[in-house]
Structure prediction request, 88 residues.
Amino acid sequence: MKKKQGFRTIRTESLVEQSAWQEGRSFLRLSNRVAEELMAEGMSHLARAKACHDVLEELYHPHVDFSYGEEQTEKILEEVRSLPDQKR
Prediction:
C-alpha cells in the first residue's frame, strides 16, 4: 500500500494496555450484535406496519375520489404557471 505524501501511520497499540484493547473489542462486538438485532426487529415492525397499511388501503381505496384530487392539482398547476417569471 502506497503512503500518501505528508501522512504517516502511527501505531497506538503500544500506548494502551492489552486489557483495554480487549475490553474495547468485546464492547464493539456486543454493540454490533445488539445493533443487528435492533435493526432486524425494526425491519420486522416495518413489515407488519406495511401489511396493516395495505389492508387499510384496500378498504378505503375504492371510496376515494381521485378525480377530485386530479382536478385540484390541475387547478393549482394552472395558478403556478400563470405567476410572473421571477428569474432575473
